[in-house]
Amino acid sequence: DDTALSPSTSMPDGNVLESKSLPRTSTGSARSMLNKKMVREGENMQDDDKASTPSQEKIMRRRARKREAYLKKLEGKGLYNPDRPTKPNPERWIPKHERSRSRNKGRTGGNNRSAQGGGSQLDAQRLDAAARRAGTVPTSSGPSTANVKVSSSGRKAGRRR
Predict the structure, then answer these.
(1) What is the band of 117 on the pLDDT scale with cuts at 50, 70, 90?
(2) Residue 119 class from Cβ within 10 Å (0-12 exposed, 13-18 middle, 19+ buried)?
(3) Which one of 21, 67, 118, 119 is most buried, by most CB atoms within 10 A?
(4) Mean pLDDT score, 40-49
């Protein structure tokens, strides 16, 4: 048995072995090398992103240049006067369906602004009893239609069989 250790061969002491540093053949494992490489590439990509993203000042300067060019173009067409700029529409902050332009005028022509189809301002003045007594509102010139019978012309609403 050449492979078996003889009792005379001395083994190194355990404390000595514990205090020694382990020999390393390379500086790191393949996985740690790959991770380091990916981190380096990630830093480079972030630097590229920062370089490609313009600063806020640069964006504002570009907007100002574009605005000046646009206003000169409008001025050339006669649609903009820098001496007399137009004021914005005060209704622009109101939702579109509530703006005065978008209201459905219908049969009344847009004069009816009161609730539930109430009359116009003229009708309200005519019906004001206190104003009529004071004589500030002229009464209607024609005869009263309170006792006039409404004539029915033609057929009734439903068909007869």
Answers:
(1) low
(2) middle
(3) 119
(4) 64
